[in-house]
Design goal:
Blueprint lengths: L3 E6 L6 H14 L6 E7 L4 H8 L4 E5 L16 H6 L4 E4 L2 H5 L5 H13 L3 E6 L3 H5 L3 H16 L1 H4 L3 E4 L13 H18 L1 H6 L2 E4 L7 H5 L6 E4 L6 H12 L11
Parallel strand pairs: 1-2, 1-8, 2-3, 3-4, 4-5, 5-6, 6-7, 7-8
Helix pairs in contact: 1-2, 1-12, 5-7, 7-9
Length: 261
């Protein structure tokens, strides 16, 4: 059975004192919630602090992006190997906020995935449709296009070295999450598509949901059989709120009547 994974995407937030309070509170708050995995993705300048506080604990830490290049004159970029030196386990790639600003497209996401797995990082691939695409009924086409671009570059077997995160753009930071039923239907569709390509990969890869997850809807979302956890944005800025979401993942039970592959 796939373990739930809850990942905090702290985006461009944080201070050294504030990070310390958050991480110490998270360590204490999740001490009894051992049935799920947890990670915090920080802005790069704070990775040393995350390493120093979380090393030896059950909580992992990660980056929010990385270069697809192995080296070169790319001012402002960060090598995958640099993240490894700071003990990073996860790295977010293809987040909609980066796609929207032109920093990422389907091709570059696949290239970043390949570069990440080459050095042993676990990339979290973000997939999701805009509001316009959603209203046009293009959710399936958009998410499969984004997923196929990675598969075509790295192969279905190598996809198992990463994690998927379905984040409908219209739900990110809006306070309007997708309904648990909608999120489940998309993740079920994505998993079924992968199973057709490779049964083992499709059944075992973790697929997260992201987009306005809060403590009051986390339990219902995590109760869906194909939702393997969450990529948490705004709610990760409040320690108490994030710990409650972690608790919901650790104690999640599948809803009655729901089915998974």
């Amino acid at each position: 059975m796939r373990r739930k994974l809850v990942v905090a995407n702290r985006k461009m937030h944080g201070t050294i004192p504030g990070n310390k309070l958050f991480l110490e509170g998270l360590l204490e708050g999740t001490r009894d919630y051992c049935n799920s995995d947890y990670a915090v993705c920080f802005p790069h300048p704070y990775l040393f602090q995350a390493q120093s506080i979380l090393a030896g604990s059950s909580i992992a830490w990660g980056g929010q992006n990385m270069s697809r290049h192995e080296k070169g004159a790319y001012t402002g970029s960060v090598l995958p190997g640099m993240l490894v030196e700071f003990g990073v386990e996860y790295v977010i790639i293809g987040h909609s906020e980066r796609r929207a600003r032109g920093h990422d497209d389907d091709t570059s996401v696949g290239e970043r995935f390949q570069a990440a797995t080459k050095v042993g990082l676990k990339p979290i691939i973000c997939l999701g449709e805009t509001l316009d695409e959603y209203e046009q009924g293009l959710t399936d086409l958009v998410t499969i296009r984004q997923l196929n671009s990675v598969i075509q570059q790295v192969g279905i077997k190598n996809l198992a070295n990463g994690i998927l995160a379905y984040e409908p753009v219209w739900a990110i930071g809006t306070g309007k999450p997708a309904s648990p039923e909608h999120a489940q239907s998309i993740l079920h569709f994505l998993r079924g598509y992968l199973i057709l390509k490779d049964k083992e990969v499709g059944e075992n890869i973790r697929i997260l949901y992201g987009g306005s997850i809060k403590s009051d809807n986390a339990a219902e979302l995590f109760g869906m059989p194909d939702i393997d956890g969450g990529l948490i944005g705004g709610a990760s800025l409040n320690t108490e709120e994030f710990v409650k979401i972690c608790q919901a993942a650790s104690t999640a039970r599948h809803v009655s009547g729901a089915s998974a592959y």
